[in-house]
Amino acid sequence: MASYDLTPRIAPHLDRHLVFPILEFLQERHLHEDEQILSSKIELLNKTNMVDYAMDIHKSLYHAEEVPQDMVERRVEVVGRLKALEEAAAPLVTFLQNPNAVQELRADKQYNLQMLSERYQNFASPMNQVQSRIWLMHWSLFIFFNHDNGRTLIIDLFNQDKYLNAIQTSAPHLLRYLATAFIVNKRRRPQFKEFIKVIQQEQHSYKDPITEFLACVYVNYDFDGAQKKMKECEEVSVPRKYAWLKIFFSVYLVLAEKLNLNYEEAERWIVNLIRGSKLDAKIDSHLGTVIMEPNHPNVYEQLIDHTKALSGRTQKLVNQLLEHAQAQPAR
After folding, report:
1. Which of 70, 197, 207, 261 lies at a CB distance of 3.0 to 4.6 Å from 265, suitable for a disulfide?
2. Are residues 73 and 145 in the same domain?
3. Is residue 75 in some structural domain?
4. How many domains does the chain have?
């Protein structure tokens, strides 16, 4: 469904050549008109060095054998610029290709950054590091969702504090992919509880059917709402093969019948289940229902969660500054 298309939010964090597979996917799914996709491809290519590809698409869109003169001139410009870049990067490439020179690198990342910065003006500021993490996460989507173990690996990467902080700060739409990975993955259940807190905290900045589905089930205990969101999840391209989502609700609806429990046994079983899972819930025997109270953390709990690692990060930053200051006289 076009309304859930994240391309406008993802594309700014990708190299232009990585946007093309997304446009190809949108074209295959017929989410937009073919002419609109082809026009977008040409517009995207106009600011890249992929001039030959742009010429081919121009011929396909306009059914012509000739291309505009500005494309021909652009091709000459691109070839000249590529040669200049090769010459500029030659010293660093030579360094990396020299085994003896590479041995100068150490396990100390700060030393390596300082040494490379002095020789080749290659230094990443903290802000650049955050931006690099955001780019890495966007780029990695192409790998993780085409790898047999990708749904586990994406959790291991995205769920690290420094990457999760980058998501919450600048790219909350990536929560969709992390949520999907948690839904279809049973190996990373211990981290799932903390991730639900993130979903709850970020509902004001980003939500879609997948994150709302998790919020309905694990935060609000709104199973009617979860059923509606589950149907919408199919429109956001959640594969049907993960049918256990549907089974999830079927279990709730036919639980007592399948377990062959009478009313008193079913009630006693549910009471033990509530106690064991430490849920804030109670049974209304008169109405025959289970009442589950949503668990909304107060502002103080959210503040503690956001700042619990602040002391360690501050100490790490101080150590880096001290190391940098001590290295200054050695120049």
Report:
1. 261
2. no
3. yes
4. 3
Q: Give pLDDT, residue 99.
A: 84
Residues 95 and 111 in one domain: yes
For the residues of 95-126, what is the DSSP string, one character each? HHH-HHHHTT--S-HHHHHHHHHHHH-----H
Q: What is the residue range of 37's domain?
A: 2-126
Give the single-character DSSP code of 170: H
Mean pLDDT of the region 63-83 = 86
pLDDT computed for residue 178 by the predictor = 93
Decide: pTM greater than 0.90: no
Which of residues 99, 126, 153 is at a domain's end? 126
Question: For residue range 98-125, what is the model confidence (pLDDT) as tens digits?
Answer: 888 778 777 776 777 677 766 666 555 6
Alpha helices in the chain (DSSP H): 7-10, 16-29, 34-45, 51-62, 69-97, 99-102, 109-120, 126-144, 150-158, 161-170, 175-183, 189-201, 209-218, 223-233, 244-258, 263-277, 299-307, 310-327
Give the count of beta carbons closer than 10 Å to the beta carbon of residue 268. 12
- For residue 316, which amino acid is it? K
In a domain, 274, yes or no: no
